[in-house]
Amino acid sequence: MVKISNWQLFWLILTLEISMSMWLTISPAIQAAKQDAWLSLILAGIIGLAVTLIIIKVCQQHHSQSLIELSQTLFGKWVGKLISILYVATWYVVASNILRIFAEFIQQTLFHNTPYWIISACMVAAITFITYIGSIESIGRFNEMAGPLLLISITITLILNVPNLHLSLLMPVYYDSGTQSILKGSLSNASFLGESILLMMLNPFLAKPQQALRPALLAILIPSILTVMTAAMVVATFGNVIGGSVYFPYFSMVRFINVLGFIQNMDVWIVFIWIFSVYVKLAVYLFVNSYGSAQLLGFKKWRRMIFFTSPAIFVLSVLPRNLIIALDFKNEVWLGYVFPILIIGLPLIMLVMGKLRGTQAHSR
């Protein structure tokens, strides 16, 4: 069986978390908490770290099992399969939404006259190739190049945007928002950080699962810090009204960079790098969906499922709906049900059940 190192695991999680969270969660945080959005995102980072800690502990208890196998071990065959179906179905929908948002964003920014379904088809072909040929190991190796490039690019854009900051726009702190608004603003980003639940499918492929805690938590911490900084910079650049009204505030801020009339048009470079990060994210989702579906159906050769999974994700992504409806999945289904139940509730129950079973076995 192919294995991924802790270093590859770090970059995989970091890319998974940063590729969409900085694009889609800053605006909701600003809408809810106004200039205190950075406080919301600090809270979101703490929640994300706690959730990831629980997930890693569950993985370490059952380091040779995927979520599909673990669910049946802890809850029995039929209940476990039902729980697994909920996870896999959710990941199909999430992957299709990511693909749709990506295709529409690329269409709006780069290829105005190209139908979004052609962009989606090209991306599906690319992720199908790397997943079928090399599995999660090749995805991890590719991301060892794409991940650092993404991180460096984001850091450079934040530094270049410093001259555009008006720190007075961050004032007053807490007075205009309050605890409830700050908590509400944290939920979107915290739920995105909860994508670390995918670790429970990657668990059997970790070379050193007992040493996965540190790289996993670090991979959550760094995107959280960058998102906090980005939110503060967006508000300090545009104010909370404009910053909370655009879908992609980070991208809008990058477009605003102009250093001495020489360094500008950074948005083209950022989009180019972002394409690689979304490529990795979708490839991981394709692998997880294919491997999980194969385990549910009892197929030993999981690669065969790729030829069902990739068309399914593509078809779901091109169903008639606009970008706003795609984003509503996050606001209604993801935040209302997936995050509290599938990402927080069930892993916590699994952790408790695993500890109880371990205690019982030790007492015997």
UniProtKB/TrEMBL annotation:
Membrane topology, as annotated: Multi-pass membrane protein
Identify the keywords attached in UniProt to this record, alphabetized: Germination, Membrane, Transmembrane, Transmembrane helix, Transport
Coiled coil feature spans: none
- List, alphabetically, the Pfam families matched: Spore_permease
Keyword DNA-binding included in the entry's annotation: no
**TM spans (from-to):** 7-26, 38-58, 78-103, 115-134, 146-167, 187-206, 218-248, 268-288, 308-327, 333-354
- Compartments (UniProt record): Membrane
Mind telling me which InterPro entries this protein's record contains?
Answer: Spore_GerAB
> Which GO BP terms, alphabetically?
spore germination
The record's Gene Ontology cellular component field reads: membrane
- Which family does this protein fall into? Belongs to the amino acid-polyamine-organocation (APC) superfamily. Spore germination protein (SGP) (TC 2.A.3.9) family.
PANTHER family with a match to the protein in the record:
SPORE GERMINATION PROTEIN A2
This chain belongs to the protein called Uncharacterized protein
| Organism field | Paenibacillus albus
